[in-house]
Amino acid sequence: MNLFPKLTSADTINQAFFERFTDAALLLKCFQSVQDAVEFLNDGGKIEERDDSYIDLIGAYWALKVLFERRTGGDAKKVSDDHREVESRCLLAGEQPPDMHIPVARSLVAPTPPEEFNEQGDLALACMAFNSAEQIRLGTNATLSANNAQIAATLAVEAINVTTAMRQLVLRLSGGTLTDMAVIVGRMRGTGSETLQ
């Protein structure tokens, strides 16, 4: 199954072209482009501007740029240029380049402070957990279709909110301690008293 049309120099090869493909298809495209170029060079070929290997490598560049943006929310070229500028400046100054990090998109929401959960009644806690779980469900569908780093980061925060609300509710309903919760879980499983780790 050919996932990509054959790229030619007449095609408009840009980021928008590659944004319509899934991550797996983009990764395969990158692998195939590099593999073909390496095999061509190993066979004594020389890559020249606008030949098939050159065009495939341009495609791999754009595919990687799309993948980077989906995973981090950032622009791979800008991050790469920034890193190169720092490395160049340090090398010219005779210094060791610092550890450089890749910026990652931040969540659209912040975790709810645990104290806020303590102030809620049982029904309110259950509703808060349900609402955050619903955001995860909806966000998972959106992430699958949009591959958006900010949505993925938001899902992680909502998962924290669900866990915090459910933990508070279960502790409250079971007696207030992990030991009390372990006794109830043990009864449900038909085992003796166990301490949850």
UniProtKB/TrEMBL annotation:
It comes from Pseudomonas syringae pv. papulans. It comes from the Bacteria. This is Uncharacterized protein.
